[in-house]
Design a protein that fits this description.
The structure is a single chain. With 234 residues, this protein is mainly alpha-helical. The protein contains eight helices and five strands. The protein has helices spanning 80-83, 86-102, 107-120, 125-137, 141-154, 158-174, 178-189, 197-206; strands at 33-36, 41-45, 56-60, 219-221, 226-228. The strands form two sheets. Strands 1-2-3 form a three-stranded antiparallel β-sheet, with no helix packed on it. A two-stranded antiparallel ribbon has the order 4-5. The longest helix has 17 residues, at 86-102. It is elongated, with a radius of gyration of 21 Å.
Length: 234
Protein backbone atom coordinates (compact mmCIF):
# COMPACT_ATOMS: atom_id res chain seq x y z
CA UNK A 1 0.00 0.00 0.00
CA UNK A 2 2.83 2.43 0.77
CA UNK A 3 3.90 2.11 -2.88
CA UNK A 4 0.42 2.92 -4.23
CA UNK A 5 0.59 5.51 -7.03
CA UNK A 6 -3.16 5.59 -7.62
CA UNK A 7 -4.93 8.95 -7.38
CA UNK A 8 -8.58 8.53 -6.26
CA UNK A 9 -9.41 11.81 -7.98
CA UNK A 10 -8.06 10.58 -11.30
CA UNK A 11 -8.89 6.88 -11.60
CA UNK A 12 -7.23 5.09 -14.48
CA UNK A 13 -5.71 1.67 -15.08
CA UNK A 14 -2.17 3.00 -15.52
CA UNK A 15 -1.55 4.45 -12.08
CA UNK A 16 1.98 3.04 -12.03
CA UNK A 17 3.18 6.13 -13.91
CA UNK A 18 1.74 8.64 -11.45
CA UNK A 19 3.69 10.08 -8.55
CA UNK A 20 2.49 13.10 -6.66
CA UNK A 21 -0.90 14.69 -6.35
CA UNK A 22 -3.33 12.71 -4.20
CA UNK A 23 -1.56 9.35 -4.26
CA UNK A 24 0.03 7.71 -1.22
CA UNK A 25 3.52 7.71 -2.70
CA UNK A 26 5.12 11.13 -2.38
CA UNK A 27 8.46 12.49 -3.51
CA UNK A 28 8.98 13.94 -0.02
CA UNK A 29 8.38 10.70 1.90
CA UNK A 30 11.68 10.13 3.70
CA UNK A 31 10.74 7.30 6.07
CA UNK A 32 8.22 4.48 5.78
CA UNK A 33 7.46 1.91 8.46
CA UNK A 34 5.19 -1.15 8.50
CA UNK A 35 4.22 -2.66 11.87
CA UNK A 36 3.34 -6.33 12.37
CA UNK A 37 2.43 -6.51 16.08
CA UNK A 38 1.09 -10.05 15.79
CA UNK A 39 4.53 -11.16 14.61
CA UNK A 40 6.50 -8.79 16.88
CA UNK A 41 8.14 -7.35 13.81
CA UNK A 42 8.57 -3.95 12.19
CA UNK A 43 9.67 -3.25 8.62
CA UNK A 44 11.73 -0.09 8.13
CA UNK A 45 12.52 1.43 4.76
CA UNK A 46 16.18 2.06 3.99
CA UNK A 47 15.97 3.50 0.49
CA UNK A 48 15.89 7.05 -0.80
CA UNK A 49 12.71 9.09 -1.23
CA UNK A 50 10.06 8.06 -1.96
CA UNK A 51 10.81 5.50 0.73
CA UNK A 52 7.46 3.75 0.38
CA UNK A 53 8.95 1.97 -2.62
CA UNK A 54 11.56 0.26 -0.44
CA UNK A 55 13.75 -1.63 0.06
CA UNK A 56 12.83 -2.62 3.64
CA UNK A 57 14.68 -4.35 6.44
CA UNK A 58 12.70 -6.38 8.99
CA UNK A 59 13.41 -5.91 12.69
CA UNK A 60 12.09 -8.32 15.33
CA UNK A 61 11.31 -6.89 18.74
CA UNK A 62 10.29 -8.13 22.16
CA UNK A 63 9.07 -6.36 25.29
CA UNK A 64 10.80 -8.82 27.62
CA UNK A 65 14.40 -9.92 27.98
CA UNK A 66 17.53 -7.78 28.24
CA UNK A 67 17.82 -4.44 26.49
CA UNK A 68 20.54 -4.39 23.89
CA UNK A 69 21.53 -3.60 20.36
CA UNK A 70 21.57 -5.86 17.33
CA UNK A 71 23.38 -4.97 14.13
CA UNK A 72 21.44 -5.95 11.04
CA UNK A 73 22.88 -6.73 7.62
CA UNK A 74 22.51 -4.13 4.91
CA UNK A 75 19.30 -4.09 2.91
CA UNK A 76 19.26 -6.32 -0.14
CA UNK A 77 20.03 -4.69 -3.45
CA UNK A 78 17.12 -3.26 -5.38
CA UNK A 79 15.46 -5.46 -7.94
CA UNK A 80 17.28 -4.27 -11.05
CA UNK A 81 14.44 -5.38 -13.31
CA UNK A 82 11.89 -3.36 -11.37
CA UNK A 83 13.97 -0.19 -11.24
CA UNK A 84 15.27 -0.32 -14.81
CA UNK A 85 11.86 0.57 -16.26
CA UNK A 86 11.12 3.94 -17.90
CA UNK A 87 8.53 4.59 -15.17
CA UNK A 88 11.16 4.12 -12.47
CA UNK A 89 13.57 6.43 -14.29
CA UNK A 90 10.83 9.06 -14.56
CA UNK A 91 9.97 8.63 -10.89
CA UNK A 92 13.55 9.25 -9.81
CA UNK A 93 13.72 12.17 -12.22
CA UNK A 94 10.58 13.67 -10.71
CA UNK A 95 12.01 13.34 -7.20
CA UNK A 96 15.10 15.22 -8.42
CA UNK A 97 12.81 17.90 -9.88
CA UNK A 98 11.07 18.47 -6.54
CA UNK A 99 14.40 18.73 -4.75
CA UNK A 100 15.85 21.13 -7.30
CA UNK A 101 12.74 23.32 -7.17
CA UNK A 102 12.81 23.51 -3.37
CA UNK A 103 16.52 24.31 -3.41
CA UNK A 104 15.95 27.31 -5.65
CA UNK A 105 16.89 26.06 -9.11
CA UNK A 106 15.76 28.39 -11.88
CA UNK A 107 12.50 27.61 -13.71
CA UNK A 108 14.57 27.06 -16.86
CA UNK A 109 16.64 24.36 -15.13
CA UNK A 110 13.57 22.70 -13.63
CA UNK A 111 11.80 22.78 -16.97
CA UNK A 112 14.72 21.00 -18.67
CA UNK A 113 14.63 18.31 -15.99
CA UNK A 114 10.88 17.86 -16.44
CA UNK A 115 11.23 17.50 -20.19
CA UNK A 116 13.58 14.57 -19.58
CA UNK A 117 11.03 13.04 -17.20
CA UNK A 118 8.29 13.40 -19.82
CA UNK A 119 10.54 11.81 -22.44
CA UNK A 120 10.92 8.76 -20.19
CA UNK A 121 7.14 8.33 -19.70
CA UNK A 122 5.26 10.35 -22.34
CA UNK A 123 1.86 9.14 -21.10
CA UNK A 124 2.30 10.37 -17.52
CA UNK A 125 -0.31 13.14 -17.06
CA UNK A 126 1.12 14.56 -13.83
CA UNK A 127 4.54 15.03 -15.40
CA UNK A 128 2.93 16.55 -18.48
CA UNK A 129 1.01 19.03 -16.34
CA UNK A 130 4.11 20.18 -14.48
CA UNK A 131 6.07 20.43 -17.73
CA UNK A 132 3.29 22.64 -19.09
CA UNK A 133 3.35 24.93 -16.05
CA UNK A 134 7.10 25.42 -16.28
CA UNK A 135 6.77 25.99 -20.04
CA UNK A 136 4.29 28.76 -19.24
CA UNK A 137 6.72 30.33 -16.78
CA UNK A 138 9.28 30.39 -19.61
CA UNK A 139 6.81 31.97 -22.03
CA UNK A 140 6.48 28.87 -24.22
CA UNK A 141 2.68 28.84 -24.34
CA UNK A 142 2.48 26.62 -27.43
CA UNK A 143 4.69 24.03 -25.74
CA UNK A 144 2.47 24.19 -22.66
CA UNK A 145 -0.65 23.65 -24.77
CA UNK A 146 0.94 20.54 -26.34
CA UNK A 147 1.74 19.04 -22.95
CA UNK A 148 -1.75 19.75 -21.64
CA UNK A 149 -3.33 18.23 -24.73
CA UNK A 150 -1.42 15.00 -24.07
CA UNK A 151 -2.36 15.08 -20.38
CA UNK A 152 -6.03 15.42 -21.30
CA UNK A 153 -5.81 12.19 -23.30
CA UNK A 154 -5.45 10.43 -19.93
CA UNK A 155 -7.16 12.63 -17.37
CA UNK A 156 -10.76 11.55 -16.77
CA UNK A 157 -11.17 12.49 -13.10
CA UNK A 158 -13.21 15.68 -12.79
CA UNK A 159 -10.77 17.86 -10.84
CA UNK A 160 -7.63 16.90 -12.76
CA UNK A 161 -9.41 17.23 -16.08
CA UNK A 162 -10.82 20.65 -15.16
CA UNK A 163 -7.39 21.82 -14.02
CA UNK A 164 -5.80 20.79 -17.32
CA UNK A 165 -8.58 22.42 -19.34
CA UNK A 166 -8.26 25.71 -17.46
CA UNK A 167 -4.52 25.92 -18.03
CA UNK A 168 -4.86 24.73 -21.63
CA UNK A 169 -7.35 27.53 -22.29
CA UNK A 170 -4.96 30.02 -20.72
CA UNK A 171 -1.99 28.80 -22.75
CA UNK A 172 -3.94 28.74 -26.02
CA UNK A 173 -5.30 32.21 -25.41
CA UNK A 174 -1.83 33.52 -24.60
CA UNK A 175 -0.49 32.36 -27.96
CA UNK A 176 -3.42 33.80 -29.90
CA UNK A 177 -5.38 30.59 -30.54
CA UNK A 178 -8.65 31.99 -29.23
CA UNK A 179 -11.01 29.59 -31.00
CA UNK A 180 -9.20 26.60 -29.46
CA UNK A 181 -9.13 28.34 -26.09
CA UNK A 182 -12.90 28.87 -26.31
CA UNK A 183 -13.41 25.15 -27.00
CA UNK A 184 -11.32 24.27 -23.96
CA UNK A 185 -13.42 26.61 -21.80
CA UNK A 186 -16.63 25.02 -23.10
CA UNK A 187 -15.29 21.59 -22.17
CA UNK A 188 -14.33 22.96 -18.76
CA UNK A 189 -17.90 24.10 -18.09
CA UNK A 190 -19.16 20.59 -18.88
CA UNK A 191 -16.91 18.87 -16.33
CA UNK A 192 -18.96 17.42 -13.42
CA UNK A 193 -18.75 19.84 -10.51
CA UNK A 194 -17.05 17.78 -7.81
CA UNK A 195 -15.18 19.55 -5.01
CA UNK A 196 -12.77 22.16 -6.37
CA UNK A 197 -14.09 22.19 -9.93
CA UNK A 198 -16.48 25.15 -9.51
CA UNK A 199 -13.61 27.53 -8.72
CA UNK A 200 -11.76 26.39 -11.85
CA UNK A 201 -14.88 26.85 -13.97
CA UNK A 202 -15.44 30.32 -12.53
CA UNK A 203 -11.86 31.30 -13.33
CA UNK A 204 -12.22 30.00 -16.88
CA UNK A 205 -15.39 31.99 -17.47
CA UNK A 206 -13.86 35.14 -16.02
CA UNK A 207 -10.83 34.89 -18.31
CA UNK A 208 -12.78 34.23 -21.49
CA UNK A 209 -12.46 37.87 -22.52
CA UNK A 210 -8.83 37.47 -23.57
CA UNK A 211 -5.36 36.25 -22.76
CA UNK A 212 -4.02 36.76 -19.25
CA UNK A 213 -1.10 39.13 -18.92
CA UNK A 214 0.34 37.50 -15.79
CA UNK A 215 0.65 33.90 -16.88
CA UNK A 216 4.43 33.82 -16.50
CA UNK A 217 4.06 34.59 -12.78
CA UNK A 218 2.47 31.16 -12.27
CA UNK A 219 3.34 29.46 -8.96
CA UNK A 220 3.71 25.68 -9.42
CA UNK A 221 3.05 23.12 -6.71
CA UNK A 222 5.40 20.28 -7.61
CA UNK A 223 4.05 17.98 -4.88
CA UNK A 224 0.28 18.36 -5.25
CA UNK A 225 0.61 18.70 -9.06
CA UNK A 226 -1.19 22.03 -9.12
CA UNK A 227 -0.55 25.67 -9.91
CA UNK A 228 -1.94 29.12 -9.15
CA UNK A 229 -1.72 32.66 -10.41
CA UNK A 230 -0.96 35.34 -7.81
CA UNK A 231 -4.09 37.36 -7.13
CA UNK A 232 -6.31 34.80 -8.87
CA UNK A 233 -5.97 31.80 -6.58
CA UNK A 234 -6.27 29.11 -9.25
Amino acid sequence: MLADCGDPGAPDPEAHDRLGGNCIVSAMTVKSVIFEPEASRVWISTGVAPTGLGPYVDVDYSWDGPVGRVELPASPALDEGRWATPQAAAMRGYVAVTRAHLEGASPIEVRAMLERVVAATPSGPNYRFLAAIFAISAGDFAGAARHLGRALEREQGSYRRALCLLWQARALSACGRESEAARARKQLIRVPAVEGVAALQKAGAREAVGALSRLRTVVPDVFLIDAALPGVGV
